[in-house]
Amino acid sequence: MNLSSQFSPLSKAWAAFGVVLLLLGGGIGIYVLILSQDLPDPAQLERYQPKLVSKVYSADGKLIKEFFEERRSYIALEQVPESLVQALLATEDRRFHEHWGVNLTRLAQAVVIDLAYMEKRQGASTITQQLSRLLYLSSEKTLTRKLKEMLTAIQIERTYTKKEILEMYLNHVYLGHGAHGVQLAAERYFGKPVNQLDVQEAATLVALVQRPETLSPIRYPQACLARRNLVLRNMYTCGVLSKEDLERYSSTELGVQKTLPNEYYGIAPYFTEHVRQLLWDKYGRDILTQGLTIYTTVDTRAQYLAEKAVTEQLQKIQVQYNKRLLARREHLQIITQAMLDSLGMNMRQVLLDSAAIHGILSKERPVQAALVCIEPKTGFVRALVGGRDFDENKYNRVIQAKRQPGSAFKPFVYTTVIDNGFPPTYEVLNQPVVVKQVDGTEWRPHNYDNSIGGFVTLREALTRSLNLPTVRVVQQITNPGTVVSYAKRMGITTDLPPYDAVAALGAGEVIPLEITSAFSAFPNQGVLMAPIFITRIEDKDGNVLEETLPHGKEVLSKETAYIMTHMMRSVMDNPRGTAAGARSRYNFYRPAGGKTGTTNTYRDAWFIGFTPQFATGVWAGFDRQDMSFERGTGAVIALPIWAPFMRAYH
């Protein structure tokens, strides 16, 4: 008998269907097995290390900057308000405490709805699935990624408790405008920590989970409001919100902060950028991911006053300089046709529009300035302005620039002779002098006002910033090499030729931070404190990684420091002093000393001065070699920044 005749066609069909199911099941099994090989290993799942933002604080406790790859600050679940958790579960995963990573019922419903509409309409991912995608997978919309997401979610559920999963999710979810996690999102949108959020504010954060960019409460407030009210309705449906509360909260505005001052660059941008560079040299990319807390020396009040003084004076100087360019018709070479085309104007129209011409000349030929304020007794840098506009130019002139100090270098000359036993009353001839240079040429210096006279004391020569007596001091009492050695001892690291009398009068180059720090030794009894920007660094758990205490060294005797301090006070106290305007014009009457500085080309103008509390250096000038002030001295250009700042800060 033929065996095939014993089976009916129906039986054969069922057998064939069974074989197909077996093959299909086996294929799916093999496919899932292959996918499982590419999932995160258990050890990786057990090491949850979110990228955390590092925060920089000022000396007065204000947050001034954040460093991050993902802007996130970790917070325990206990600190998250219950209303936020309720809103999240009511909207994203109502059966969170019941499923094992995948909600099969919700998945089936989503498949039916999507098939009915023939498009993706219904989401089915649980919070655990979303977390697996955030932590380990991409956001591509493919079947393979979806299956990996489900398998990884199951592994996560086997590794962590529900509480831990919720905590990780709330800290990892992206909520727009650079805010990762609910803590920074609460600070960004509402200006307060997450544990202080009201119910409607918590609902707003949950509303952003779905599409943080297109539901932005700042860019698309109406769309965000509608989504927030849907979250509130979900809470009502789940029984965690009364009907009265639903109506009350739904009628409130979003109440978010539309803008934040200095959101990108923060406070004291030149200062914090230098801090970032110091940290990067030691910690590398960890400063972007490890949630460090950095405590710095900058005082936000001093920083505000410094930026205000620099800005106000630069605006005045720039207007004067622009007028000079116009008077000399130099604007014809500066303003190009491309500039005119971009403005949609011709030259005549630009010249008639004062705002337009001022804007162009200010951008193309900017006057720059820098200020640094140091506490002599500690070395703490209390304020730093590296230029007129950090957004426009990141070059930090306080730390990176090397400029000729002009007469601001003279205190090193007089320190040399005072430290070697010559009194302030020692007299030097104020008459023309010829200096033989190393290249065989002759240099014939002159005083700023071309004056000459008889004998003057060392104090008067410094007070009036007389060049002729200073050259004679270098030639007859000391020598360029000794002067340069004193400058080096006091912290100047730049190259200063030890054989050139011109360099001893400020023709060499110095860094503003270094020369200001050097001046701070005078009121500190000859002790030079190292400039400090960072006082303490802590890890994310509050453990101290490093701490910097004030440290310095004695570079001058107390006697020399005292005499030099007293001589430099004459620069301001004596009516003939080059900085007498600090008293007469700016009403700054605190005990103070300092020195003006102007280079021969009028490209650099300085005033560096100190009180017992603070030493502040101000430089103003140009980055371009072909620009200069028209007989602009340190007293005229830099002192109007220094004096108002010091008066206000004290």
Protein topology:
Elements: H1 9-36, H2 42-46, E1 54-57, E2 63-67, E3 71-72, H3 82-92, H4 104-117, H5 127-136, H6 143-159, H7 162-172, E4 179-180, H8 182-190, H9 199-207, H10 221-237, H11 243-250, H12 269-283, H13 286-289, E5 293-296, H14 300-327, H15 331-334, H16 337-343, H17 347-352, H18 354-364, E6 368-374, E7 381-385, H19 410-419, E8 427-429, E9 435-436, E10 442-443, E11 455-457, H20 458-463, H21 467-477, H22 480-489, H23 501-507, H24 512-519, E12 527-529, E13 534-538, E14 544-547, E15 552-554, H25 558-573, H26 581-584, E16 593-598, E17 604-610, E18 615-621, H27 634-637, H28 639-649
Parallel strand pairs: 1-5, 3-4
Antiparallel strand pairs: 1-2, 5-13, 6-7, 6-18, 8-11, 9-10, 12-15, 13-14, 16-17, 17-18
Helix pairs in contact: 3-9, 3-10, 5-6, 5-7, 9-10, 10-11, 14-28, 19-21, 19-22, 19-25, 21-23
